[in-house]
Design goal:
This protein is an alpha/beta fold and 363 residues long. The chain has 3 domains: 74 residues, no CATH class; 186 residues, Rossmann fold; 58 residues, Arc Repressor Mutant, subunit A (Orthogonal Bundle), CATH 1.10.10.10. The chain is 45% helix and 14% strand. The strands form 2 sheets. It has a 9-stranded mixed beta sheet with strand order 1-2-6-5-4-3-7-8-9, sandwiched between helices. Strand 5, helix 10 and strand 6 form a beta-alpha-beta unit. Helix 9 packs across helix 10, helix 11 packs across helix 12 and helix 15 packs across helix 17. The longest helix has 16 residues. The chain is elongated, with a radius of gyration of 23 Å.
Length: 363
């Protein structure tokens, strides 16, 4: 790992105005951060740096840099990993603009095993939350580290799903790691640091700014082999992450929904554009050539009493012979889009099967 003596120069360069990831990484091809602060103004101008950058490099704000160093020394679970560090996640290093410096609260080794990102709406349906939790839990048990963005809604449910399986999960932040956003996920963030890690490219003290979150999305997708989208409107930030995943040659999966459900429109659009339609976690395993036989005993079958009230009501309407969706709607009086989503989850959990638009109860 980079020494504490050298890391201060990385932090100082990270805080230099008008130097983003692209320029930072270009400079790394020419010199080291430590050497950069010893270069003349003439050299810095020749490299095309902005006058504000040159001024900051000639007179670094070591007071702000000390905030990063103090945070690093606060806790043995606080880490700073540079792009040159052997612990830097290999998949993330491959993207067009990898973050030159990663702040990590938790276990840095948890960033390297196979990861699957799961993202979606901040205002999901109850069924969407259940879907996120169940997919995350099952995939975590099967060996994937679950990665998301700690946002309200689907992100939070994904982290909780992995944690409930006692498996690692990664939360990529759009703030400095001294600031948990949203604040109501403070307890969740603390749990994540025990089994996985919080990750950010932003220096300590960085507040929640709108433009930081699309930027951090490339890290969510960049860390992962694939990305699953659960409930997303047409203008959802999750679609930005999915687009970045495609640009990074990652596999993209999406769970479909009813055509008149606004929360399904983003996922349906992704499927039209080539994302893999996903109705079961084994759809994801197949894409990665993971044989079902090697995993069939790793995830325990859920019991009836673990289902939610809405899942139980809808399951009760499904007969042990093929049942039409209209009969289920009539029996439960639930909205059709909710029934369809819940039937999908009951099929994933092994309670029902579906064929030609009919549903059959299995247990």
């Amino acid at each position: 790992m980079t020494s504490n003596h050298n890391i201060k120069f990385w932090c100082a360069l990270l805080r230099t105005p008008k130097i983003g990831c692209h320029t930072f990484n270009k400079l790394l091809l020419k010199t080291t951060p430590e050497e950069l602060f010893n270069h003349s103004s003439k050299d810095l101008r020749r490299w095309g740096l902005h006058p504000l950058s040159i001024q900051a490099l000639q007179n670094p704000n070591w007071t702000d840099v000390q905030k990063d160093l103090d945070w690093l020394n606060q806790d043995d679970q606080h880490h700073l990993i540079t792009l040159k560090d052997p612990q830097y996640p290999p998949l993330l290093k491959e993207i067009t603009t990898p973050p030159p410096l990663l702040f990590i609260h938790g276990n840095p080794k948890s960033l390297c095993p196979p990861q699957l990102a799961i993202v979606g709406s901040r205002n999901p349906s109850i069924t969407g939350l259940e879907t996120a939790h169940q997919f995350s839990n099952s995939l975590a048990r099967l060996g994937f580290t679950i990665t998301s963005g700690l946002a309200l809604g689907i992100d939070g449910a994904c982290h909780e799903g992995a944690l409930s399986a006692q498996k690692e999960t990664i939360a990529v932040m759009g703030t400095g790691l001294d600031r948990i956003y949203p604040a109501r996920h403070h307890a969740l963030a603390k749990k994540i640091t025990k089994l996985g890690a919080l990750v950010s490219e932003f220096p300590i003290g960085t507040p929640a700014k709108a433009h930081n979150f699309p930027q951090r999305n490339r890290i969510i997708s960049g860390l992962c082999s694939g990305l699953l989208v659960i409930e997303a409107t047409k203008r959802s930030g999750s679609l930005i992450t999915a687009k970045m995943a495609l640009e990074q040659n990652r596999e993209v999966f999406a769970i479909p929904g009813a055509i008149n459900n606004p929360l399904a429109q983003g996922c349906n659009a992704l499927i039209q554009e080539g994302a893999k339609l996903t109705t079961h976690y084994q759809d994801i395993l197949e894409e990665f050539n993971i044989l079902p036989d090697s995993t069939q005993n790793t995830s325990p079958q859920p019991a009836f009493d673990t289902l939610s009230i809405s899942q139980k009501n809808i399951l009760d309407a499904v007969q042990f012979n093929p049942t039409a969706i209209d009969n289920i709607v009539e029996h439960t009086q639930h909205p059709t889009h909710l029934i369809l989503s819940t039937l999908l989850q009951l099929e994933i959990l092994g309670f029902i099967s579906s064929e030609n638009g009919f549903y059959t109860r299995l247990k």
